[in-house]
Amino acid sequence: xxxxxxxxxxxxxxxxxxxxxxxxxxxxxxxxxxxxxxxxxxxxxxxxxxxxxxxxxxxxxxxxxxxxxxxxxxxxxxxxxxxxxxxxxxxxxxxxxxxxxxxxxxxxxxxxxxxxxxxxxxxxxxxxxxxxxxxxx
Amino acid sequence: xxxxxxxxxxxxxxxxxxxxxxxxxxxxxxxxxxxxxxxxxxxxxxxxxxxxxxxxxxxxxxxxxxxxxxxxxxxxxxxxxxxxxxxxxxxxxxxxxxxxxxxxxxxxxxxxxxxxxxxxxxxxxxxxxxxxxxxxx
DNA sequence: ATAAAATGCTACTTAATTTTAGTATTTCTT
DNA sequence: AAGAAATACTAAAATTAAGTAGCATTTTAT
Lengths: 137, 137
Hints:
The structure is a homodimer of 137-residue chains. By secondary structure, the first copy, chain A, is mainly α. The first copy, chain A, contains eight helices and two strands.
C-alpha cells in the first residue's frame, strides 16, 4: 500500500483539471491553482502526456488538455502509470512470493481491504471526483 | 496511503515473532527467518523496544520477546509508531487542509475506503495474523 | 578471567525520490 | 523579424529513506 508523493501530485493535477474538463491549463496556471513546485509540475505534466491522459500544445498559447474524456480516466490508471499497479496490489508486507504463493501472514486478512481500495480506484473516474468537489479552491 | 518499507519490515518482524509468542528471538535469528538486512533489522528492533511492543534482554543469551500479549498489539499501532498515523489517515491527495476543511475532491469518495483500511488495521492483532499464517516459511 | 554472543548508540554511506537549473524548441503576437 | 510565453529534454542538486560500520556494553559459557 504505497502512494508516492508523485502519485498524489498526479491525482491532484488531473482532478483539478477535471473541474473544467475541456479547458486548457498551462503549467504556470496549475502551479498557482494547486501547490506543486512549478518545475517538477512541468515534468509531471510531460509524463502525464506521454501516458496519454492529457495532450500538450506547444508555443505561446500552449498548455494541456485532456486527451480523452475525464469520465474515462480512472484513478487506478493514474496511480498505475506513476507508481505501478504493484504499489497497490502488492503484498502488504513486501514479500515477493506472497502474490502467487499466498504465503504471507496478512494475505487473507488484507485481501478484502485491498480489494476495496482497488475497486474504489478502479471505479472512480476523474469525472466522478468532480461531483464531490464541493468547496475546494 | 503510504506504508514505508520500514513499516512493512516492522510488521514482518512482529508478525513473525507472533508465531511463537512467548519465544525469544535474536536479531540474527530473525534475519535468517525473514529477509531483512541484519544491521537495519537490529535498529528496528531497538526502535520497536522503545515503542513498547517488545523488550530486549542483553548479553549472550539475550534477544527480544513481546512486552505485552500479541493479542493486544494491533497493526495500526505498529504502522503508527513507525510512519505515524497520518500516513494512513491523511489526505489521499496530500492536502494539509483536507482533514478539517473537507476540501479535497477525493475526500468524500475516499472516506469509506480509508475507514475500511483503518478498521482492518485497528481490529487486527498480531495474534489474529497467526491464525492466517498457513504456509509461510 | 576471558571469549563469545547478544543489544545499544552514533555516525557514516548509499540509494531513491523530489526539486531545481539550463538550454532548446515551438508558436503566437505585434 | 523579434520577443514573449509556452512545452521538452537532460543534467544536477537537495532531501529523505534505507542500509552499513565501528565501538561500547551486557551477560553467559567455558
